Amino acid sequence: MEPSHLTRRLKDLEDNIKQILALLKKYEDALHYEDDPRRQVKYNREIEKLRESANRYQQEYDRLYQQITGESTVQMQSVAIQLEEVNNRLDRLSAGQKAIYANINHLRQGLLAHYEAGEKNIISAITYQLNESQLTTISALLDAIEANKVSDAEMQKILPSIQESLIILQQRGVTLPVSQEELAEVINAPQMDFKHRLKVAVPLIPFILDYEGELELGTGINLKQGLKQFMARLIGE
After folding, report:
1. pLDDT band at residue 236, thresholds of 50, 70 and 90?
2. What beta strand segments (E) does the chain contain?
3. What is the sign, positive or negative, of the torsion defined by CA atoms of 195, 197, 199, 203?
4. Pairwise CA distance, residues 164 & 58, whole Å
5. Distance CA 77, CA 64 (A)
6. Residues 165, 208 contacting (CB under 8 angstroms)
7. DSSP letter (8 states) at residue 217
8. Residues 6+ apart with CB under 8 A from 174
9. Is 51 exposed, middle or buried (0-12, 13-18, 19+ CB in 10 A)?
C-alpha cells in the first residue's frame, strides 16, 4: 500500500471513530434521562450497532498496523487510543444497562408475586411497558392494598375511575399491552372481591395517567393527584 494511501485510510478511520464517539455521547446522555422502556430498547439496539462498527474498525486498524511505517506511527497511536476509548465506553454502557435491567427484572418478579398463576400472563405483559420508577410505585401500592392500608372508601374511588378510563381508552382506540376485553373480564368479575379486582387494575394506572388530560374522566376524580396523595401518606407511615 502506498504511504499516501495508508495515510488517507488512517484519516478516514479516525473520522469514523470520532463519529462513533459523538454518537456514544449522545446515547449516554439520552439513556441517563430516559425512563421509557421502549425507547431504552431502541437506544440499546443503536449502541449494539455502534459496537459492530467499532469491531470492524478495530479489524481495519489491525490490518493497517501490519503495514505500518515510521512516518505513520504517531497517527496509528492516535487511532489506537481512540479505539480504546470507544471500547471502554461501550463496555461501561453495557455494564450499566445490564445492572439496570437486572434491577428492573427483580422488580417485575416481585410485582408478579402479588398475583395468582392465571393472572401472571396479563400482569407480566403490562410490566414490560413500565419503567423502574413505575414498577416501584405499583409494587408499593400493591403492598399497601395487601396490608389493608388502603381504606374501602379509597378503593371504591380508585377502581371505578380505572374502569371508566379503560372504557374511554377503548372508545378512543388506544392500544394497551394486553387485551382490554380479557382485562375487563377480570377487573369487572362480580365473583371476585373488591380488593383483588383493584390489585389487577392497579398496574394500569401509569397508562391511564399518560392520557388523563385528554380523557376528561366523568368520575370527578383526579387519579394522578389521588395517587400522589396516597403515596405521600404511604411514605409518611
Report:
1. low
2. none
3. negative
4. 57
5. 12
6. yes
7. -
8. 211
9. middle
Nearest of 171, 159, 150 to residue 200 by alpha carbon: 159
Alpha-carbon gap, residue 121 to 229, rounded angstroms: 30
pLDDT in tens, 107-166: 999 999 999 887 888 899 888 888 888 888 888 888 888 888 878 887 887 788 788 878
Query: % helix / strand / coil in the chain, to the nearest 5?
Result: 80, 0, 20
- Specify the length of the chain in residues: 237
Predicted pLDDT at 112: 92
Name the residue among 123, 122, 130 with its Cα closest to residue 104. 130
Q: Please say whether the beta carbons of 158 and 223 come within 8 A.
A: yes
Q: At what angle do helices 180-187 and 194-201 cross, to 10 degrees?
A: 150
| Torsion-angle region of 220 (φ positive above 0: left; ψ -120 to 50: alpha; else: beta) | left
| 1 has pLDDT over 50 | no
